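The methods section describes the discrete structure representation at length, but only in general terms. What matters is that the chain and its backbone geometry are given together, residue for residue. For illustration, here is how one protein appears when written out as sequence plus structure tokens:
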Amino acid sequence: MSGAGGPVWTGRDRGSATAEIALALPALVLLVLAGVTTVAGVGAQLRCVDAAREGARAAARGEPAGHASRVAADAAPADSAVVVSYAGEDAIVTVSAHLVGLSRLLPDVRLTARAVARREPGVPPGGGGVP
């Protein structure tokens, strides 16, 4: 209702806006947390992909597996696991990271990226170094 001086609240309408906000606010907070966690997850996944590519390039150049692993670990998110392996002419690097949700309400996610690079000519199998 509205009167000459502005809205006039009846007894039934009083406090309804507060109740609506109290119901909507937790959903809004959860939505914001989910959005921030998603953005953080995308960023971490991109870092895993970049780290796997850098490690695979290092392994394909003939760098020892330990060095290729360190190269990938330096580019990967903190506390990531890096595995360097070889299959025939290919150097394979897998980077895994654990993304912890920003809240206990959101699940934790395991991120994984894998890159494969063909060994350069003259590089011995197994990444033993450039001859």
